[in-house]
Design a protein that fits this description.
Layout: E1 6-9, H1 27-40, E2 44-47, E3 49-50, E4 56-57, H2 60-73, E5 77-80, H3 90-94, E6 103-107, E7 111-113, E8 116-118, H4 122-134, E9 138-143, H5 146-157, E10 166-171, H6 181-189, E11 196-201, H7 206-215, E12 219-222, E13 229-231, E14 234-235, H8 239-252, H9 260-267
Parallel strand pairs: 1-2, 1-12, 2-5, 5-6, 6-9, 9-10, 10-11, 11-12
Antiparallel strand pairs: 3-4, 7-8, 13-14
Length: about 270
């Protein structure tokens, strides 16, 4: 079977040090966590950055410092976030694309996000896609709802993004699709031939959705951005512990764990 790509979402924009003392914030902390995740089986690190006070930022300089520190430690694929945090402007969110990452997230549409609204109107999506193509950055298509998949297929038909694409189904956000087997199977049924998919289960759904995705031929995302617990009531000491657990699930499903070089080949990263 195809090797399983594990993505480590190590920081995010919503998780705080008050929620878990193990959240990495500085460039050195992010690099050390990426290194540990790589050693545990992650081929991709999904990267957000923070200011010194822990608040989320899309500042290009902070991203560059973190990317340089990560690349000095290991060969993991760096996937920068263009989602940032709710309320950020488009230009603010696009800053990390200037740092030359191999991948970046491309959010396919807007949605209620908890008590907020995460805005991704089509003009913004098209502009982010244009910048990624110009810089030869491979997009990961972030889909929180079924309509987001349809939006991606429409944008592919217009030539805005290349097909068949690599999709990330983010399941369990309040305002998006619930994390369930029925929903995941439905989303997979909508994909074009040759597309690859990743699943990010939020909170307590992380491991269950990772296991299901791996069994269905997909890939898995885990980490402190989406879930801070290794088991009920037990904080993960870092995203690397969650990566190690997902690597075990992959092997149990008869899947080898993809190295960064294998992941690059599967994702079309040149």
């Amino acid at each position: 079977m195809t090797p399983a790509i594990i993505t480590a979402a190590i920081c995010g924009a919503e998780t705080t040090r008050e929620m878990t003392p193990h959240l990495p914030i500085t460039a050195d902390e992010l690099a050390e966590e990426a290194f540990r995740c790589h050693a545990a089986g992650a081929a991709v690190v999904h990267l957000h950055v923070r200011r010194e006070d822990g608040s989320p930022s899309q500042d290009r300089a902070l991203f560059q410092k973190a990317i340089d520190a990560i690349r000095a430690r290991c060969d993991i694929i760096v996937q920068t976030s263009t989602g940032g945090a709710v309320g950020m402007t488009a230009d603010e969110r696009a800053q990390p694309l200037e740092c030359g990452p191999e991948m970046a997230s491309l959010n396919a549409g807007s949605l209620n996000f908890g008590d907020d609204v995460f805005l991704n109107p089509f003009p913004l999506v098209r502009e982010f896609a244009r910048r990624m193509r110009e810089k030869k950055i491979v997009p990961e298509l972030e889909c929180y709802d079924a309509g987001h998949v349809d939006s991606c297929l429409w944008l592919q038909s217009l030539g805005v993004i290349d097909g068949p694409g690599h999709f990330d189904f983010v399941l369990g956000v309040r305002g998006g699709m619930a994390a369930s087997e029925a929903n995941l199977r439905f989303l997979i049924s909508k994909l074009p031939a040759g597309a690859t998919f990743n699943v990010a289960g939020i909170g307590r759904h992380q491991m269950a959705m990772a296991e299901l995705s791996l069994q269905l031929g997909g890939h898995a995302r885990c980490g402190l951005e989406d879930n801070i617990y290794l088991s009920k009531g037990v904080l993960a000491k870092g995203s690397y512990e969650l990566v190690a657990r997902v690597a075990e699930l992959a092997r149990s499903a008869g899947r080898a764990v993809a190295s960064p070089s294998q992941a690059r080949a599967l994702l079309g990263i040149n």
